[in-house]
Amino acid sequence: MRRAVCPGSFDPIHNGHLEVIARAASLFDEVIVAVSTNYAKKYRFSLDERLDMARETLASLRGIVVEPVGEGLLAEYCRNRGATAIVKGLRSSSDFDYELPMATMNRQLTGVETVFIPAEGHYLHLSSTLIKEVFSLGGDVSEFIPKSVLRRLRSGEPEKNPPGRG
46 near 73, Cβ under 8 Å? Predict the structure, then answer.
């Protein structure tokens, strides 16, 4: 079985992620969408919420497993899960410059290869950070994220004029 890992914090998962994951699913028998937590980052959604959104959004795709990465090195996680590849989506040359040293280190640590999938042109501008920022400033992000993500963003939205306030 050809198994790959597509890691990320997915806070939140957006259509650019989905497009890369779907393309990876056509290349591998199984793709593990490995939801990570970087304790230096501040997240809008908890790990459980991010896992739920990914599972709900990806349920219709064949060969997709969603699970938390947990502690430790991604290369070791891949080895423990029997994955021979890490899939990373690239939006720009700066993404490549950032990802290349990690890809080389992961290969040297455990032999896991990294497969870079260039994003489709209409997703090049998407990032979870940008989506959260645009949403928080009142922008319409509905065309960039799955409905389940939009629903969760809206449910966590503070009321504009709460009752009893002038």
Answer: no
